[in-house]
Amino acid sequence: MDILGTLVCSIFSKIGDKLIDHGDRIVSGGLNIKSISDSLKRSLDSLTAKATDVDEQIKNSELSGKKKRKREVEDWLGQVKIIETELSALENEADSEGFVSRFLGSDRAPKLQERVDKLVEQSRHFGELVLDACDIRGEALLTTKLVGKAFEENVERIWKLLVTDKVPSIGIYGMGGVGKTTLTKHIHNRLLEELTQECVFWITVSQEFSITMLQDGIARAIKLDLSDERDEDKRAARLHKALLSLGMKFVLVLDDLWENDLWDDIILEKLGDPLRVEGCQLIITSRSSDVCRQMNCQELIQVEPLDMDGAWNLFCEIHGRQRQTTLNRQVEEIAKSMVKMCDGLPLGIITVAGSMRGVTAVHAWRDAKEELQESATGNDRMDVKVFKVLKYSFDQLDPNHRRQGNEDGYTKLQHCFLYCALYLEDYHIPREELVRRFITEELVDKRKRMKAQIDKGHTILDKLVNVCLLERSDYDDHDSVKMHDLVRSMALKITERKTMVKAGQYGLKEIPNEEVWTKDLEKVSLVSNGIERIPDCVSPNCPKLSTLLLCWNERLHYIADSFFSKMHGLRTLDLSYTKIKELPNYVSDLESLKALILRNCSSLVCTSNLEKLNELRELDLSFTPIREVPQGLEKLVNLEFLSLRNFYRSISIFPTDFLVHLRKLKCLYLPYVVEAPIVEIEMLKEMEEFEGRFKDVPDFDRFIQSQKSKGYAVSYRILVGEVYSTEDFERDMNFSSVVFSSTDFKTTREEREVVTLLASDTQKLTFHECEGLSKCLSDDFNIPSSLNFFEINRCHGIESILKDEQLIMFSSLRMLWISYCNKMKKLGLRGSGFPYLEVLWIIGCPDIEVIIQAVASENVDLPKLRSLEICDLPKLKYICEAKMMCGSIKKIELWGCPLLKKLPLHFPGELVDGQMNYSPPPALEEIVIMENEREWWESLEWDHPSHGNLLQPFLTFQESSP
After folding, report:
1. What is the DSSP letter of 23?
2. For residues 532 and 508, is the Cβ–Cβ distance under 8 A?
3. Degrees (nearest 5) of the Cα angle 103, 104, 108?
4. What is 25-66 written as a DSSP string?
5. Are strands 915-918 and 909-912 parallel, antiparallel or unpaired?
6. C-alpha closest to that of 687 among 754, 725, 640, 751
7. Residue 720 and residue 701: Cα distance in Å, rounded?
8. By CB distance 3.0 to 4.6 Å, which of 147, 266, 430, 830 could disulfide with 314?
9. pTM of structure
């Protein structure tokens, strides 16, 4: 957090100089500007000190690998980071004329101080910053069923070497696609299941790996942060120290290690020297036995191809997985001959079986067999046997086998598959992102509605997954897909003359030489490298180049104009996540350009005139500190996607009537700092997605009414009123959300003729410091049953959410947060209908007596509830009169409820020798009580005398804040 402190010092040093120079103006409009400045600086200094302490304590705790930061602390640090980003932009603005009065003399400074004070106050209630890292052991991996006697024997052999013989290092080798990874995944999962006191760390090694990449992979697995250190030797020393600190046995898996000159000079020492750590065992998988020997593996195991029986069983397992399929004798004979062509390679068998799902006609099977026989192609980078069957599956994507519809003869489905190879090896590609790219590249048939195109894109991905050319993955809570490295190699081989892919973790430091930029190139991906500048001397002659991906070159700060001078056919240019400060002027002359993606170019302050880019369909300037709307934007009449969302507060005013010209817009994302011009937005008749801020409820109502006439659902993410915090931004909007912030409903009530309508797919609804709401919220709004997140904060007029007679089911609700509503008396929540509720926080509402209404004789089922915070409710008598069945509950925070007599938890019990033996809720980790309320806790009533004692180990008594 040193950057935050530096920014604070710099900004207020500049402010101090300006106040000295203009001492006669330190009182403006009745405001003492110096007083405001001093107060804000004190708050920022407090936040800086607290953030520094928190960050240091967390890093020290996580170094052992046994602790992980709490989610609330992680979120808090994220909010501090946002403050830091805003201060960075503010520092640039501080040199401008009139900055002091614009910042300190307006409401900007008080609002910033309010957010800072809120963060400081929030930090006082953290308690412990970290929890036991129970998930550091690893998680079970998705894998396919083991087939074949040899596979089962290999599993048992490896298990014996690990568990019985305690062999330190094992090498598993075999040709590509033979099943090494699948075999090792079964070992990984069995270790987690049977050896509960050991950790298993799985690291996937890509072909373009580096020592730094491997170090980062191991560090992530053990929850170690190495981002602040670049020196490989120092990183290795920290890795070794962290591995020693684990204090438990662990197995480290390095999957798919390739032959590389690095192994001649650098061995395991660079990876933290894990074999010198007591209790460590190492498993390596590789296509080469030499790699295993170079890594000093004491036992080598070769994975052989399947025999015919095993191969046939695997084919039947994959082919009939989705439906019980019985092949007639003639088809079975053909199928077995196709399996034989796969030479016992599981990857090949899986792809062939997947491609033949649903095929029943004998002639189709005969034709498929012929295709497979003809698909054998030489390849210098991958096994011919594997390429043969993978290429066959690719060919099967053309149902007519005639290659119609495109200049190169490939179908759009095949092009979608080939596009996936532009990403990094072993990369988990978010589906939403990939579908958007398919649409940008015009690989999805044009449809009237954009959402119909998105649905078609997902159908394409489903098809590629179903034929086993892509794999499903769920990485970092994103629905994703990934390519097997051999499948990716096959795709790159198919396109090798037209595609250049050098995507890797900082492998390239310079742009490739001009001689490799051939005239036939159509797509180039240089994603995720360490390129810092593209000099004037580089001007590739690529007239056919249509797609250029330079994103995630996070050190790229300069691109010469000449670089684009011979790329007149360029249609997609992605420079996102680079450090360019300005857009090269020649980009303005790329008249064929259809997509310009500059997302998260955090140093970009200006763009060139865009008026010539008449073909542009997508312009993404999200999270860039540009100071004004790009010149010529109003001329882009074919634009369908425009994103100006940002948290830099750099754009504060829009040109009048510029949206009026963009009548084809389907997606419009505006920054919250600007009031959206409702009159212009009403004219966008084709819009399907919108994000922005309206000044008041009438504008919001006008927007809703204008969208109703379209005959299709419009997704939106809208802030009504004042900006009070930064939203969680997502690229795609699969649902609608609304935040009402400091909104005055009272003065607008007479203007509103009907209840404010929310979209039926609204999942997030927030009310923050709103005035004039009706006593019952449902009198002002329809409350959709689709709600996922529902928050009401500091809204002092509201007394209830629902009326007694209303039976709205919150069947989708995951989080309910009601805080500091001083007139709230009842929530109106029924005892049933919360199957997905995970978080229930009710805080600071002095009149609430009951949280969940239910009959005492019933049970209330809350199967997903993991966090319950019931605090500062002086009249609360019951959380719920019925017993709460919440087996997933992890944390309970309970204080300031003196009238509460029972905690209605369910304690599982079993009858043993005629007596009931009870146990605490199975997932429970912590119950937080204030230190001064011990006596109250001990006075609580329980259904059984043992219940209170069972909860004692989970109690944390916390000092109340001053």
Report:
1. G
2. no
3. 55
4. GSEETTEEHHHHHHHHHHHHHHHHHHHHHHHHHHHHHHTTSS
5. antiparallel
6. 640
7. 10
8. 147
9. 0.70
